[in-house]
Amino acid sequence: MEEQEATVRNINPNPASPSDEAGPPDASSIWARMAWTHLDAVRRRAPLVQCITNLVSMDIAANVLLASGASPAMIHSINEIQDFTPKADALYINIGTLSAEWVPAMQAAAKAALEANRPWVLDPVAVSASSYRMEACLELVKLRPTVIRGNASEILALSSACRISGAKGVDSAHESIDALDAAKSLAKSSNAIVAVSGAVDFVTDGDRVISCSNGVSMMQKITATGCAVTALIAAFVAIDPWNALKATASALAVFGLTGELGMEMASGPASLRMHMVDWLYRLNESTVATRARLSERS
Ligand SMILES: Nc1ncnc2c1ncn2[C@@H]1O[C@H](COP(=O)(O)OP(=O)(O)OP(=O)(O)O)[C@@H](O)[C@H]1O
Ligand SMILES: Cc1ncsc1CCO
Ligand SMILES: [Mg+2]
């Protein structure tokens, strides 16, 4: 814990540089510098992120974590939770391909993370697809996730805990702004940081709201980009657990930025996916500090 607290102090960006002749930076550049500080910390500390994630997303989530500098471990057997989960710096649980066998493992892992004082992050994929999925997800929410990240339809459904949200499958049928009030309400009732992804991503603790406008719409044509950014959120929260709101916003900005840079070189979803992973590996300070678009909504 001492080490974590030291990290929090290191993460606070220093907004004003004495040698900055252009004067103090504006609020958006302070947020952008924070995104770089978080990415840099992930690269330096290589947090171990245990992922219990859906079968579709395993490859992209592991590659995104590796490219960011984190260390992924796709370990989901209930027989390994007791030994392994306390060793991980963060846990990521995603219900995308839920099965009866995995639900107890997810619950055991969330409990183990809580007991070991480790942050854990929930992706409620297609939570309104069935009552089984909704009930499993509500049980997980009771185990106090640090962050919940979903698309607008998922956050709307989970927030109201109703079975029919208008979504047909894993994709969103809503704009992220439509889910902002639901996200705030879910954050207050669950005590988690809640992120809604979309053209603009919103991150809230129930009161404060940070928005991120990085990203390109083609990211929706790559399966499991949402799952991958939730994995990245787990890595960012691992290195700054006491500032989960800011760490989550930073992860969304960095990931969206890789989409923008990747799109300059891509010819479609498959090559965009490849370029995003490459850009995540290559991003440097000046690019993140000048192109991350984060702001706090008043
Ligand atoms: N219209 C858009 N414009 C720009 N970026 C977008 C848009 N929609 C989504 N994104 C970005 O794509 C990423 C995935 O978000 P999305 O809302 O599609 O997740 P998801 O529906 O949970 O995805 P999946 O279930 O396939 O993993 C996020 O980083 C988000 O910022
Ligand atoms: C397509 C799909 N189906 C279950 S999980 C998943 C990955 C995107 O969430
Ligand atoms: Mg999703």
UniProtKB/TrEMBL annotation:
The enzyme's first-digit EC class, named in words, is: transferase
The coiled-coil regions, if any, are: none
Check the record and name the InterPro entries matching this protein: Hyethyz_kinase, Ribokinase-like
Q: Which GO terms describe its biological process?
A: thiamine salvage
Do the record's keywords include Nucleotide-binding? Answer: yes
Q: Where does this protein act, in terms of pathway?
A: Cofactor biosynthesis; thiamine diphosphate biosynthesis; 4-methyl-5-(2-phosphoethyl)-thiazole from 5-(2-hydroxyethyl)-4-methylthiazole: step 1/1
Annotated region Disordered: where? 1-26
| UniProt keyword annotations, A-Z | ATP-binding, Kinase, Magnesium, Metal-binding, Nucleotide-binding, Thiamine biosynthesis, Transferase
In the record, the note on similarity to other proteins reads: Belongs to the Thz kinase family.
Q: Which HAMAP family does the entry link to? A: Thz_kinase (MF_00228)
**What NCBIfam families does the entry give?**
PRK09355.1
Could you tell me what this protein does? Thiazole kinase involved in thiamine salvage pathway.
Annotated protein name in UniProt: Hydroxyethylthiazole kinase
